[in-house]
Design brief:
The complex is a heterodimer. By secondary structure, chain A is α/β, with parallel strands linked by helices. Helices cover about 35% and strands about 25% of the residues of chain A. The longest helix of chain A has 19 residues. The termini of chain A are far apart. In chain B, helix 4 packs antiparallel against helix 5. The C terminus of chain B is likely disordered. Chain B has one domain. The chains are: A alpha/beta, B mainly alpha. Chain B: This is ABC transporter permease. Chain B: It is a multi-pass membrane protein.
Chain lengths: ~525, ~375
């Protein structure tokens, strides 16, 4: 295999016939991949398509069962990440691997020290990092502990770590999940200048818009297989989505008209301090009317979860007043989660594994969580096994949950089907108010479409819907009004038709653009 | 790409059997070291435990106690708690049973006394679990620590009560008076003699039926009622339980009351069925063995009945062994320890290879099938 074709000389990385199985699961089936030198190469695919496994093989976390890896035309046996690093492969993980109380420079040096004294390494690293910062726009505060830095900076440190170790091929795994639109834009500029200097970038993401914006070539994975390699300029989001799912997908659902009614949910100067004494909600006021969707945008961790949990009765508030479908909640007068359900409020939680479902239970048992005391499921002593199972089967059919098996363990459904189970459970109780958190997190692109449709159906049916999501596209296509949260406050409100990416992005960083200020002044006047 | 499932007969049948086989092998090595032929030893144990109605009687008598103490651990475990307090809960349950039998024995007919002593066993056992449960539910004091401490408190309390209140004047040994004969739970050999079936005398009494009924009732409670649903929900995902509007402190207390009551039932077998008096140290480690039983029985009533039978066999067969070869009585503990080691601590050692083997075989026949269909 020493004879290489001419084109191979221009390849930074080539995979031939990679196979990898975990027990009975074939995560990668005969994968071929060619990544040209000095390009940004996107890899897209749904959850579980095998992207992460493939990258882990390239980075030496796993060994392929079969197949060869060529780096710069040389066949390479990558048995651990050390081999990968010395071959010039660097990886930026989705979850950062930084020591929180170390500074940027200490994190960069960690594991790449030279000599016996740390000072020499630090000095060398400082010079190198200042150089990299200038060249690629990778400025970071070098001497501040990482825990005090914003996520955008932390990601830059991860990239610097890889570059400092001499990475010529940089792999980024879902790098934009935690970034604001502005930070994302900056990241892509950095990648662009890296590319211009000859670095090869592999970008793994499920966001098609980013693939279109940032990459030169793109490879699509589906169910462990590579289904297509295309030039980005020759393709479209619609085509990529179709390749990923294997059928035509609507990326944006049509939002029909809806008649807006009375206020069904309101918060009046609500504050919430958590058990650590950190103020999570600061003087939050909002209202949601029947027949409208109010979206809450913001970078994850700015109080959205606490907002939802306070409304759902899971957390107690400290100040202010909540009105849930005509029932008052204050610091002294709480409603428990089951009382909140009784007053006609449904809650689709942000994290279905941690909260919305019991993974160890069969589907029909997880399907009654929260309603397990209702008379329709209970006899005098025993629960009505048959009505639970029949009910679950019937709703599985109506909501197209697959496989349609009420006995199957909840954990064994795919993300999209688990989410449909939760949504079906809450919506079928016919609540007046719906609290929805991250409805499509970890959900396949094909299922996203149907979940979005269902949410709009509920809006048309006159439900008051509060939607929390970190996906801006989702909020923009579903919500009628958008509120942006930052550090526990509501920065401002924008009507959906005026909410472009830039405006929302600025507000997510607590900057209110003039147009929005003017809009708000108009409203109060 | 979906993960293939392992059928139940592998999980509850093949894997536990493989674990027990390994334990038996290790026990064989111990006997070999003691210059005892392992096969002779096994034969002695089997004959001792199952070779006569005398052996059977003892084995099933022990099994009855283990079912109760095993269930006491399993119910708490389903709620995510480790109840180490079976020992103390059973001991205090014995106090309840004893007091009822001493007070009412000879005054009321057995048919009226029995329900009262059953309730007393459960209430006393449950009350002994209440304080640790309350501390766990409201203060977050770890149930493992508090139930262990309550075992010691129970032992001290029982010493005090026996010496100062229950010991008849003029006796030397620390035990209560013997109950009136009308309070005794009938022995199996006496009952069957009425039907013309003759058995050797053994401690086996009618409590065994109660233990099997209770095992079934626990299954219904855990898997067929809303209370059991809430217990299992709290045990497998506390955040999800909170989301579902389940009051976790209330469920924790309910679970521990049930667990304590189950442990208390053990006194029916040992005190009302066999000893007919409250004796010092009557629980004799059976509360702790209940932990091993629950572990071995995968915290499921059916598993617990089977594991109780195994431990009953070990206890009875082990004491035969000790008698036959005049070896240390603690050989029984060694055997139990090996079973616990292999089926508890090392359960995954056999689990993964067996599951892998099954998947390989299943896939091979699966692809054969697919090829045949194509």
């Amino acid at each position: 295999m020493t004879a290489q074709t001419d084109s191979a000389a221009d390849l930074a990385l080539e995979l031939r016939g990679i196979d990898k199985s975990f027990g009975a699961v074939r995560a990668n089936k005969h994968i071929d991949l060619k990544v040209e030198k000095g390009t940004i190469h996107g890899i897209v695919g749904e959850n579980g398509a095998g992207k992460s496994t493939l990258m882990s093989i390239i980075y030496g976390f796993y060994q392929a069962d079969k197949g060869d890896i060529f780096v710069d035309g040389q066949k390479l046996q990558i048995k651990d990440s050390k081999t990968a690093i010395s071959a010039g492969i660097g990886m930026v993980h989705q979850h950062f691997m930084l020591i929180q109380n170390f500074t940027a420079i200490e994190n960069v040096v960690l594991g790449a020290e030279s000599g016996n004294l740390i000072d020499d390494s630090l000095k060398k690293a400082r010079a190198e990092m200042e150089h990299l910062a200038k060249e690629y726009g990778l400025e970071v505060p070098l001497d501040t502990p990482v825990e005090e830095l914003a996520v955008g900076y932390q990601q830059r440190i991860e990239i610097l770590k890889a570059l400092y170790r001499g990475a010529k091929i940089l792999i980024l795994d879902e790098p934009t999940g935690v970034l604001t639109p502005q930070e994302t834009e900056h990241l892509f500029k950095v990648l662009q200048s890296l590319k211009e200097q000859g670095t090869t970038v592999i970008l793994i993401t499920h966001k098609l818009r980013e693939i279109m914006a940032a990459t030169d070539n793109v490879s699509v994975m589906r169910q462990g297989e590579m289904v297509a390699h295309v030039r980005t300029q020759d393709t479209s989001r619609e085509q990529l989505a179709e390749l990923m799912v294997g059928r035509k997908v609507l990326l944006r659902v049509e939002k029909g008209a809806s008649t807006v009614g009375d206020v069904k949910l309101s918060m009046d100067h609500v504050s919430l301090t958590d058990h650590m004494g950190v103020k999570r909600l600061k003087d939050v006021s909002l209202n949601v009317r029947a027949g409208e969707i109010v979206g809450i945008a913001g970078v994850s961790g700015n109080g959205q979860s606490e907002l939802l949990e306070a409304l759902a009765g899971i957390r107690a508030i400290n100040e202010g007043e909540i009105d849930l479908n005509g029932h008052k909640v204050t610091a002294d007068h709480r409603l428990s989660p089951s009382e909140v359900r009784k007053v006609g409020v449904g809650h689709i939680p942000e994290d279905r594994h941690r909260m919305g479902l019991i993974n160890a239970f069969p589907a029909y048992e997880a399907f009654v969580l929260g309603y397990h005391r209702s008379p329709e499921y209970n006899g005098k002593i025993q629960m009505k096994q048959k009505s639970m199972i029949d009910d679950c089967a019937e709703k599985m059919e109506r909501w197209d949950v697959r496989p349609q098996d009420p006995y199957l363990k909840t954990a064994n459904f795919s993300g999209g089907n688990q989410q449909k189970l939760v949504i079906a459970r809450e919506v079928e109780q016919n609540p007046d108010v719906l609290l929805i958190g991250q409805p499509t997190r970890g959900v396949d692109i094909g299922a996203i479409e149907s979940i979005h449709k269902r949410i709009l159906d509920m809006r048309a049916a006159g439900k008051a819907i509060l939607l929390v999501s970190v996906e801006l596209d989702e909020i923009r296509s579903l919500a009628d009004r958008i509120l942006v949260m930052f550090d526990g406050i509501i920065v401002g409100e924008v009507p959906a038709d005026k909410a472009d990416e830039r405006t929302l992005g600025l507000m997510m960083a607590n900057i209110v653009p003039e147009e929005v200020k003017a809009l708000q002044a108009e409203e109060t006047a | 790409m979906s993960q293939q499932r392992i059928p139940a007969w592998i999980t509850v049948g093949v894997i536990p059997l493989a674990n027990v086989a390994l334990a038996a092998f290790a026990a064989g090595l111990v006997f070999w070291y003691l210059d005892i032929n392992p096969f002779d030893a096994l034969g002695t144990m089997a004959y001792g435990a199952f070779g006569s109605s005398y052996g059977w009687g003892y084995t099933l008598y022990y099994m009855t106690s283990y079912i109760f103490t095993g269930l006491a651990v399993a119910v708490a475990f389903q709620c995510g708690m480790f109840n180490i307090g079976g020992e103390g809960q059973a001991y205090i349950g014995a106090l309840g049973v004893g007091l009822v039998c001493l007070a009412l024995g000879g005054h009321v007919p057995f048919i009226i006394l029995l329900p009262i002593s059953i309730v007393a066993a459960a209430v006393f056992g449950a009350l002994w679990a209440l304080i640790p449960a309350w501390l766990q539910a409201t203060r977050g004091s770890h149930i493992v620590i508090t139930t262990i401490m309550f075992n010691f408190i129970a032992a001290a309390l029982m010493n005090y009560i026996l010496i100062n209140f229950l010991k008849p004047d003029g006796t030397m040994s620390v035990e209560s008076a013997v109950f009136h004969e009308s309070a005794w739970i009938p022995k199996m050999h006496d009952v069957l003699a009425v039907f013309g079936i003759s058995l050797d005398r053994s401690p086996l009494n009618l409590s065994i039926f109660w233990s099997l009924f209770v095992a079934w009732a626990v299954w219904v409670f855990l898997w067929r009622t809303r209370w059991g649903y809430e217990i299992r929900t709290v045990g497998s995902n506390a955040t999800g339980a909170q989301y579902g509007g389940i009051g976790i402190p209330r469920v924790v207390i309910l679970t521990m009351l049930v667990a304590g009551g189950l442990a208390g039932f053990m006194a029916l077998n040992v005190v009302q069925g066999e000893a007919h008096q409250i004796k010092l140290n009557l629980v004799n480690q059976m509360g702790f063995t209940g932990i091993a039983v629950a572990l071995m029985g995968r915290n499921h009533p059916i598993g617990i009945v089977l594991a109780s039978l195994l431990f009953g066999f070990l206890t009875q067969g082990g004491s035969e062994l000790q008698f036959e070869y005049s070896i240390d009585a603690r050989i029984v503990v060694v055997l139990q320890g090996l079973v616990i080691l292999f089926s508890g601590a090392l359960q995954n050692m056999m689990k993964h290879p067996i599951e892998r083997l099954y998947l390989t075989l299943a896939n091979r026949s699966g692809s054969d099938q697919a090829a045949a269909e194509a």
